[in-house]
Amino acid sequence: MTASAPRYMARFRCIAEACEDTCCAGLTVPISESRWSLLREKVAGSPDEARVAALITPNPEGATGQQAGILGKRADGHCAFLDEAKLCSLQRRYGEAVLPDGCSVFPRVLTRWGTQVEMAGSLACPETARLCLLAEDALVREPVPEEQALRPQVARQVAAGDDAWTAHADTVREAMLRLLNRREVPFAARLYALGRMALGLGDFYFPGTTAFALAASHASASETEEASATAAREPMAGPALAASEASRHANASEAVDASAFATREPLADFALDANESRVETAGSRLVRILREYESVDTLASLHAQLDALELPGGPWAGICGAVLRSREAAVSSPRFLSLVRDVHASYGGSNANPDEAWRLHATRRAALESLHGERVHQYFLHHALNHVLRHPFTEAPSLLNAVFLLVLRASVVRWVLLGHPAVVALLEAPGTPVSTLDAAAVEAFQVVAKHVEQAPTFLDFARGLAGEGPETFARLLILVKGL
Fold it and tell me: Tell me, what is an example of a GO biological process annotation in this record (predicted)?
């Protein structure tokens, strides 16, 4: 069998002791009951038997199965089994089979869409971040041998297809990837369009939706009526359902308009033409909305709307700074803490006025755009494409929430990158080689991925910040304008 992977993951090879930020530090690593049992069997009678017994302990939260045990750490936060050569002593002596799933698979992220295994990558690995961000063809997807995924049996099932939310997930995801790749408009306008598309789908396409089943039921009833009346007409969804959907959609759109901007041109996806005599099924409505965002005119209209929208940048700067301060208090990694302190200092200190910090950021953003705009665009485009592949939106409460999380993560990385001391110095010496910018970008994206993006406190913060429905979209606008 074959799996699929973006090209940068097909190229990935662990650089082990040469890595500048080993994955054997700073992470809590669980081990499954089966791997723990195999390891104990392999080390039985050897000098490592006592070490394994002492350094792997039952999960303090009482978990079993895949999370049964926790690998111990040294005082410096490194794995207790990391040797003096920065290599895993267990793998060196007993082979890859004894490793916990996380150690074996990382930085690969395995998901199973139906029967197809997909392998994306975590940018928490410096080498993965390099390969993903810097190669122009990094996100081209291609087939790879399934064994390259190492342990495909641990892939999470994200789209079983037994409900409408997952049955249509791949279609929606492909539309998201196409939209992100539309270079006719700036990257921020694509993110804005992604949010609008998610809002347009949100009142009938969500976890647990019954709109598709009800539409199918009404379609079946219509077909029965057609057969008995010998009348030729298209199947209709229930009028009550359609009316309630239209009402909810109109209310959502009005709320966003009121909070975001006073006037805008109507888009075709937000309401059916008043003269249209038939009612759409949920499936055909989904297809129509996705198709609308393929339109050059739609993207141009959304770009113009975003350009015309004036929002203060202080709230965006305040959000980014708050995220870093929160993680600074919880993370012990010297690499992370050193960079975060430099970033704070570059914006006037950890408690700098957000409006003043925003003005510094905006000035740097414009200067970097004039020097290396295309290169920076590639970083953030690849990050976004990888995010869609690496974080299935089906795990979010809604498609709009998934888009919000993508934009929030991109905002924090942008803040860190423009506050990176190497980037600040580069802007003062425009002749600096682009390789300096590349190195700073790899560090910024990797450090944020490792110590911010997956942290439970960050995810809780993101959920609280996002709110729900129209509120989420209005707050998304603040983040998009910051980018």
Answer: methylation
- Say if residues 29 and 71 touch (Cβ distance below 8 Å): yes
Could you give the CA distance from residue 400 to residue 203 in angstroms, rounded to a whole number? 11
- 90: which 2 tokens? 């267990």
For the ranges 10-14, 215-219, 231-235, 398-402, which has the lowest average pLDDT? 231-235
- 95 conformational bin, left if phi > 0, alpha if psi -120 to 50, beta if neither: left
Q: Using 50, 70 and 90 to split pLDDT, how confident is the model at 256?
A: very low
Residue 75 banded pLDDT, cuts 50, 70, 90: confident
Kindly state the average pLDDT of the residues 188-196: 97
Torsion sign (Cα): 224, 225, 226, 227: positive
**Sequence letter at residue 441:** A
| Side chain identity at residue 256, one-letter code | V
Name the region of 77 (left: φ>0; alpha: ψ -120 to 50; beta: rest).
Answer: left
Note the helical H segments in 349-420: 354-390, 399-419
| Residue 430 DSSP SS3 | coil
HSE-up of 223 (CA within 13 Å, CB side)? Answer: 6
- Backbone phi, then psi, for 19, in 5-degree steps? -70, 135
227 CB neighbour count, 10 Å cutoff: 9
Residue 16 region, left (φ>0) first, then alpha (ψ -120 to 50), else beta? left
Which of 6-15, 114-123, 171-180, 282-291 shows the lowest mean pLDDT across its residues? Answer: 114-123
